Amino acid sequence: MHTTVGIIGGGPAGLLLARLLHVAGIDSVVLERRDRSYVEHRQRAGILEQATVDALRAVGAGARLDREGMPHDGIELRFGGRAHRIDFPSLTGGRNVTVYAQTEVVKDLIALQLAEGGPLLFEAEVISIDGADTGSPVVRYRHEGREQILTCDYVIGCDGFHGVTRNAVPDSVRTTYERTYPYSWLGILAEAPPVYEELIYAHSERGFALASMRSPSVSRLYLQVPNGTDPGDWPDERIWDELDARFATHIDPGWKLERGPVTSKAVLPMRSYVTEPMRYGRVFLAGDAAHIVPPTGAKGLNLAAADVIVLAHALTRWRETGSTELLDAYSDTCLRRVWRAEHFSYFMTTTLHTDPEQSAFETRLQLSQLERVATSKHAAAELAENYTGLPLSG
Ligand code: RFL
Ligand code: PHB
Q1: Contacts for 363 with CB less than 8 Å, ≥ 6 apart
Q2: Fewer CB atoms inside 10 Å of the end CB: C or N, the chain?
């Protein structure tokens, strides 16, 4: 089999890229290791920037998003027993974000691609990519019990942090930057209406907590826990009690979350990671295959979308004019945005979590920084601009 663009991975990056190329009249094949149901039910991100929403609409995946997505004009920060709201539109010239789960984005993109796109193969595991520095790279994959070959003009690695495409970039040209954190998140889904209208990010002496949502009847909640925590050590009542304790304020001491059946419970480690460059020969990396951010800034899915928007534009230019100018600029163009998001995600993470080793001095610095965001329009605008997403060219 031959295709113009071979896409490894059917997560948000690979699926959105396939749709963007389809709209531009460029053929592609998507190879996804897992089965369809697994990919559609993997619990992950919830926040879409405006540019991500616009891209989904442009590829025809906007209808359900426009019906069911929940536009949010702000977030609440809780710290030192107080609550403070950051208003996005007034601080950013009108921008906001939309709460719409990654599972739903993926379902919408898969349905579209199967209805009217190029091949999207599930349970097709890529084993290797050869000839990145030749004119026609070769993808080897296993599908329906047989090893198969896909030759491509370009190969795009959208295969996430544990993918194989990164290995096609020789160690001698690759630099990796990494940071781990001394805490994880315990994330739950609960059949309980969120009593809050906007997301709440809480700094507390007991550790960080985040209240998000999936729908008017489903809450998504996270607690900072030590690395290596067994979710089995957290019975539901313990989770709810701890969430209430971390969200408590002096102003409304009776404030409590609405409780309901917990339908999913998992521990997620936190990591910052960037590999450079994001391209070698005719192989390109996009999304989590090239970079990871801790989830506190809600940037991972949006960075993946931004990468493939830049890439689709560059491939379209190449197809129309034969010029590789934008493809040659791809890595530098994306990395500027990636590093900004890395810094923002690091800032949100280290400002809001309690490092088990942290001194009282460091806790006071965190509270002082949060106080600054709560009292300075400039500090609040810096947070709001990064949270709602910087312009795609930036
Ligand atoms: P994915 O989603 O990991 O998809 C990669 C796909 O590649 C497949 N694959 C292979 N296929 C074929 N052959 C191989 N050898 C393969 N190896 C792997 C995998 O099966 C998979 O289907 O990467 P992608 O597309 O780059 O998308 C990235 C996002 O999934 C990720 O950044 C976000 O989920 C991060 N994230 C968040 N991002 C946001 O923008 N906003 C948020 O609110 C947000 N919250 C989160 C998050 C991530 C979380 N976790 C679990 C890490 C909250 C959480 C809890
Ligand atoms: C989520 O809804 O899953 C979510 C929201 C905001 C974050 C991380 C995750 O920062």
Answers
A1: 205, 354
A2: C
Give the chain's domains with CATH numbers: 2-70+99-179+271-352 (3.50.50.60), 181-269+356-387 (3.30.9.10)
Q: One-letter amino acid identity for 70? A: M
288-326 per-position pLDDT tens digit: 999 999 999 999 999 999 999 999 999 999 999 999 999
Q: Which two tokens stand for residue 90?
A: 């007034």
| Continuous segment of H or E residues that includes residue 143 | strand 138-143
Tell me what pLDDT residue 391 has.
80
pLDDT per residue as tens digits for the range 210-247? 999 999 999 999 999 999 999 999 999 999 999 999 99
**Structure letter (DSSP) for residue 123:** S
116 CA from centroid of ligand 2 (Å): 31
Q: Please work out whether the CB of residue 126 comes within 6 Å of at least one atom of ligand 1.
A: yes
Closest C-alpha among 331, 333, 391 to residue 157? 331
Given a contact cutoff of 8 angstroms between Cβ atoms, the answer to whether 290 and 307 are in contact is yes
DSSP 223: E
The half-sphere exposure of 79 on its side-chain side, counting CA atoms within 13 A, is 23
**3-class DSSP assignment, residue 60:** coil
Q: Say if ligand 1 is within 6 A of residue 157 CB.
A: no
Which candidate, 319, 225, 242, 324, places its Cα nearest to that of 22?
319
- What the block records as the tokens of 302 is 């949006």
Q: Give CA–CA dist 216/82, Å, rounded.
A: 25
Find the distance separating the first CA and the last CA of the chain, reported in whole Å.
38
Query: What is the CA(295)–ligand 2 centre distance, in A?
Result: 7
State whether the Cα torsion 156-159-164-167 is positive or negative: positive
Give residue-wise pLDDT tens across range 23-37.
Answer: 999 999 999 999 999
